[in-house]
Amino acid sequence: MSNLSALKAILLTSGSIIAIFLVTKNPWTGRFSLQLTLTLLLGIIIYAYISRHQEDKAARSKNLLVLCSLLTVMLIATTGWFFSPFFFCLYLLGILLAFVFSPAVSLTYSITLVLLFSFNIGEVDLTYDFLVVLSLLMIFPLSLYLRKEYLRLKLGKVSSFVVNLRQPINDTKQLAYQLNKTGAKDKEKTVERIIASSEEALRILKEFERE
User: Fold this and answer.
1) Which of 52, 153, 172, 189 is 20 to 30 A from 61 via CA?
2) What is the pLDDT of residue 206?
């Protein structure tokens, strides 16, 4: 992820959360928060339908993820922030942002939430509110740990895949060299062995794709 893309993601994350917080907390706009949430949901459905044939699948997936993230935050805001039954989704969303974008985006997300919620400490219970805000700071180290473990497991799978694939490829290469040196009777057997090695390589590749 380039520095420019990371900066855009950071600004979009913090700006969106602040905007949603202000809209839902404002007495004039807060009354329309449910309508805004439904409008955002409708917009996501329309975008998903219109962009279903988009060639850049990765960009489409990221755009949908951003929109769904906004919808999640909007839903939590609409249902009462601290009192929302979906409040736990804020933790999951922070971890998801670290995986899809970068740890810096997850850190920005956590800090933005902490700063906004710090104004509400003491509204329900001082100790409870403080612990909730403090727990939001744990999103970043937790996402770092999970991301590190995920990359480690992924690297292990890739290494295993390369080792398993190397053998049939080497066999195919050696058999191809031998094909010109063998007689007419042995050529058919050599071709069969080449086909078998190629099929084995394809099988390993398909198994890796399924994982």
Assistant:
1) 153
2) 63
